[in-house]
Amino acid sequence: MNFIPDALEGLISLEYRHGFETSIESDEIPKGLSEDTVRLISARKNEPEFLLEWRLEAYRRWLKMTPPTWASVHYPPIDYQDIIYYSAPKSQKDGPKSLDEVDPELLKTYEKLGIPLHERAILAGVAVDAVFDSVSVATTFKDKLAEVGIIFCSFSEAVQHHPELIKQYLGTVVPVQDNFYAALNSAVFSDGSFVYIPPGVRCPMELSTYFRINAKNTGQFERTLIIADRGASVSYLEGCTAPMRDENQLHAAVVELVALEDAKIKYSTVQNWYPGDKEGRGGIYNFVTKRGDCRGARSHISWTQVETGSAITWKYPSVILRGKDSVGEFYSVALTNHRQQADTGTKMIHIGKNTRSTIVSKGISAGFGQQAYRGLVRMARSATGARNHTQCDSLLLGDRCQAHTFPYIEVKNHTATVEHEASTSRIGEDQLFFCRQRGLSAEDAVSMIVNGFCKEVFKELPMEFAVEAQKLLGVSLEGSVG
Amino acid sequence: MLSIKNLQASVGDKPILKGINLDVKAGEVHAIMGPNGSGKSTLSNVLAGRENATVTGGSVTYQGKDLLALAVEERAREGIFLAFQYPVEIPGVGNVYLLKAALNAQRKHRGLPELDAMDFLALVKDKMKLMEMNESMLYRAVNEGFSGGEKKRNEILQMVVLEPSLAILDETDSGLDIDALKVVSHGVNSLRSPDRAMILVTHYQRLLDYIKPDFVHVLSDGRIQRSGGPELALELEREGYAWVGNETNEGVVAP
């Protein structure tokens, strides 16, 4: 029976809709990486001495490291001397004072992506820190947030205005030597976002950053640091789209989250980087280190990700559960289609007493897509009464894709509880037939079934993102009734 | 409304239907009875367009159209409804969502405006009363964790919401206790009308106590061996299917 290729044709052959390029002049430094490159980046950004030293330390360690090979992904070796490590849109050299000063070309780009900064920010109550290549070009609502003491700005600004916070927290969750890509990022990161929520403050709006890669051959090395002080809470959204291009591009970001006592951080991602074409040409290499540290008692960190883009995804948003009674969550939908590869999952490191974690991973493979869930649950000797529940489901569309599950479980405390459930299923011919017999087209039926499969994760996303995520899966909105 | 002429179909290499002839007019209820393996379910599936059976000969005309040339969803939108013998579960997809999407896909096809959430809910809640179903079932995933009886009720709920022109009920009575059977029959009977036809596919006569057919056909070995009125079902109940087989061996063909 070959009903699946037909039924899925529509979904699988969806063109990448964000493939366009904005022509603006860029201020680039020459290709290649050396100690001088690191110094040059730091100098361009007028950074304090401690940060330059930190970068150089990372660079020296990176030189001695090798790329990880344990993931189930395959790609030719990357020539790190063939990458431009810093690119800033020229018109932004002095930084915009307001939206009016933002290059209209840039704003148009965002509009095509469906993010009209003005309206979106005002109507949806979302403050947008738009990262265009390496420099933040627009930050909205900053003043309003500042009234309650919240700092939400580009990483570069934070370095200039709040160096003490950077010094105190940078690299404390993901140390420079953590892994090859994290070390590289630490040496050459160009910009990113910074958030600080003061004690007891509940952030009054969702904070959002749209990342976008534009200039050719520009490795993008974002650095994000979010700190929720005692009793603070924040929900942060990150969305990514990139224009169509033939060469592979490296995206090696680092995100660090710190939650102090009773603090809560919810971090949501919709990742839609260019996945490459049907034959697997082009696309983004998304090699990202994301980690949260539940440093205080009763703190709570939640990762939600919808990964539909990138040629290769290598990503394990993790939580270190240090504070007693702290909670870590990971909700993930990953879709691999055509020749896409994804090796993604999480690490839940239980150190504190009565810490709890939940992992829900939904993997969808279509075409020749390759997907692996890789997750570690570690119960340290000190993690008395800790609990984890993992649920890990894979859905296969067609018969040429693959899904693998690699759960790693380490338990050193006998009072800890670890549960793991896993399933792999195919979209059933009977399910499709049933939906079509009720009058739905095959494409709508597939969308509906896939959407149902992902529901547990989508319900964790903030509303606007849930909509976008469902659209990304080629799906009409479910649950608008009742 | 429906005219089946010398229909032949195989599953894999195995011929299952070996020349079915059947005419169904608007307003009529036909029961198709037969032993296991006689081809009852294959006939239902072929009419609905399921791809696991391959039509190898004959024709089916539905409301003047060549039914076999239509895709599954086109047949559904033209008013053909199949109540499944084994309703499938669709995890995560709300019952209410599936129903609304299905109804609106069909309305759109017929050039009717799509129902909004409010109008749809009013309609479906009304139909749920008829089926004696708890409203909470609307918000559960399609058939997930439903009992056998609940699944069958859910099928008939879909039928009364979609109001098909031709309803095919495949072994709807199997797995139902007597109370559920009454409710399901009540739902089916509520749909009987001069412009609607039904085909009841069943192994047992029991269902026909509640839904009175106009015609009864006995299917065996891929052919309709006998046709008659409701009394034929009673005869079958008394004698069993064995004598149909015997007569077949003696060369009796459908009238």
Main features:
heterodimer; A: 482 residues; alpha/beta; 23 strands; globular; B: 255 residues; Rossmann fold; six-stranded mixed sheet; four-stranded antiparallel sheet
Main sheet makeup of chain A: 11 strands, mixed
**Number of extended strands of chain A:** 23
Straight-line N-to-C gap of chain B: 20 Å
Domain count of chain B:
1
Mean pLDDT of chain A: 80
Can you count the beta strands of chain B?
12
Major sheet characteristics of chain B: 6 strands, mixed
Structure, described:
The complex is a heterodimer of chains A (482) and B (255). With 482 residues, chain A is α/β, with parallel strands linked by helices. Helix content of chain A is 24%, strand content 34%. In chain A, β3 and β4 form a beta hairpin. In chain A, α7 crosses α8. Chain B has one domain: Rossmann fold (3-Layer(aba) Sandwich). In chain B, α5 runs parallel beside α6. The two termini of chain B are 20 Å apart. At the A-B interface, α10 and α11 of A face α2, β7, α3 and α4 of B.
Short account of what is shown:
The complex is a heterodimer of chains A (482) and B (255). With 482 residues, chain A is α/β, with parallel strands linked by helices.
Strand and helix map with partners:
The complex is a heterodimer of chains A (482) and B (255).
Chain A: H1 3-12, E1 26-28, H2 35-44, H3 49-63, E2 87-89, H4 104-112, H5 117-124, E3 127-132, E4 135-139, H6 142-147, E5 151-154, H7 155-161, H8 163-169, H9 180-188, E6 193-197, E7 207-212, E8 223-228, E9 233-241, E10 248-251, E11 254-259, E12 264-272, E13 283-294, E14 300-307, E15 312-315, E16 318-321, E17 327-336, E18 341-350, E19 356-365, E20 370-379, E21 387-396, E22 402-411, E23 417-426, H10 429-437, H11 442-458, H12 463-472
Parallel strand pairs in A: 3-7, 6-8, 7-9, 8-11, 9-12, 10-13, 11-13, 12-14, 13-15, 13-16, 14-17, 15-18, 16-18, 17-19, 18-20, 19-21, 20-22, 21-23
Antiparallel strand pairs in A: 1-2, 3-4, 5-6
Chain B: E1 2-11, E2 14-24, E3 29-33, H1 40-48, E4 54-62, E5 65-66, H2 72-77, E6 80-83, E7 90-94, H3 95-109, H4 117-130, E8 141-142, H5 148-162, E9 166-170, H6 178-190, E10 197-202, H7 206-210, E11 215-220, E12 223-228, H8 231-239, H9 242-249
Parallel strand pairs in B: 3-10, 3-11, 6-9, 9-10
Antiparallel strand pairs in B: 1-2, 1-4, 4-5, 7-8, 11-12
Helix pairs in contact in B: 5-6
